[in-house]
Amino acid sequence: MDASEILVVILSVALAVLLVLAIILAYHLIKISIALRQISQKTAQVVNNVEQASHLLKNSAVPVAMSRLIANMIDNFKTKRHRKEEKDEKK
Q1: C-alpha of 78 from chain center
Q2: pTM (two decimals)
């Protein structure tokens, strides 16, 4: 065996090793891309759920605020009426 044949064997072995490493790398990159796709889909679902929840809260915020305002007005009316009755009793 002369030097050129040894060099061809060494290069073919190196090429085979690099080919196997490239196949393994491609396999892992495909797995990572699938995992990233699943994560992005779940993230999109979470964003959609948050949007729906915020829309629901936005729509229910006005009635809640109005009911709170009405409750405060009723409490103020009762308090003023009670104070007036107490003043009348003291006289």
Answers
A1: 46
A2: 0.54
